[in-house]
Here is the input.
Amino acid sequence: MKSEFAFIALPISALVVPSAFAVRYLTVDQAQQAIFPGKSFTAAPVKLTSVQRKAIEQASGVRVLHDEQQVWRVSGGGWFIVDEVVGKHEFITYAAGLNPEGSVKQIEIMGYRETYGGQIRDQKWRAQFVGKTSKSTLKLDSDIKNISGATLSCRHITDGVKRLLAFYEIALRH
Amino acid sequence: MKFGLTLVAALLFAVSTSHGHEAIFSWTYTTDLTPKGHGEFEQWITTRWEKEHGSYSVIDFREEFEYGVTDNFQLAIYLNHHYVHANDDVPAEDPAHPGNRLRGAYETGGEDVHAGHNPATTFDSYHFESVSLEGIYRLLSPYKDPIGLALYFEPSVGDQETELEWKILLQKNWLEDRLVWALNVNYELEFEKEDGGGYERDGMFEWFTGLSYRFVRNWSAGLEFWNHHEFADATIHEHSAYFLGPTIHYGGERWWATLGFLHQLPIGEAFSHDNKEFAAHDGYIFGDEHEKYYVRFRMGINF
Here is the structure.
């Protein structure tokens, strides 16, 4: 039966391929200028305490994957946050701009590489988040429309924004 | 060596055309479907080997084209063909006591050995088996509903057998959809050509379940379990066989590949006299039903 084992090795070798990395559509600088044109930014990273982490998870109903959040303070008021959520195969990197009072100014997809669901980059879909606050429902098929064939990406971005708005309330607002 | 060449050629074909839907398991279906207006080509290669005695190995090939009719309804067509090598693999019947095995005597047989083949000689043949149509309709999505649910129907037509298969597909995700559990409950009716010229009707009830975790970007790994029940004439419970093994999956932007292994567990049970006599052996179910080892490689290209 030795001959049977030889051909098992071939498909295994076909599986060992270099991992593909997400396509970067926007750098941090580009995303900052897309959301807050002409403004200057001061890095203000936040490391969450376990109490803050639990409070965010409780308020948003979404698990916090990373204790460190990349945050920039925007000149003239507002916050710029870079975040990532789980995609079908890889992480989806996106940026959220928050107005001084904590509502969403704009969302930009910075890195994405999936078979389907690139429509989350469409301005019209992203525009649904504008004005949302931590008090918003932020639920797919409720106040955020789903894109057929891209449900996983839509749900994870929606959950991500919901988590960031809870993060604002708990870690940034005061 | 024809055996080896066919295999290498098929593998090269599969690898050379590979560059994207997504089967994270090798045997168990999830409720994920190809989105509306999109298509996918899949190449399946399944090898299964070892019975109670002699030599037996089969390589099953499947080329499948899937199309998303709507976001919740997918149609597929596929070609099934295989290469079979069998020699002295099934127990011979005692002519003095029909219905009982002749101890120590074996002949060439098995479900993939064609009706009419001389059981005293080796069977070594490539055979185009059947054409299948497959429809899957999703009722609930695991990304929006508490659990994913889909219904599956597949008719297959071939020169040696005709099959009808129904499945209920369930899927539950956890940990941001990185941990996936799936359960398939299947019923299959098979009409297999007999030596006398008629058709034998068999019924199969089986369930597959798998748990897979995406441990790093693009890669997931898990375990699959399969329990198969055979019913002669679709009414007489003949046996129950169990299988377990690991599966690994790579998913990229335009293509994916999955490799799985199943080992028959020595806890099988034969219920009918025929299966107790000809199929059961040391807790395994062989005869013309199952093999000890199964390896499946699947690769899909999305477009």
Confidence is low (pLDDT under 50) at residues 1-20 of chain B. The domain at 2-302 of chain B is CATH 2.40.160.40 (Porin).
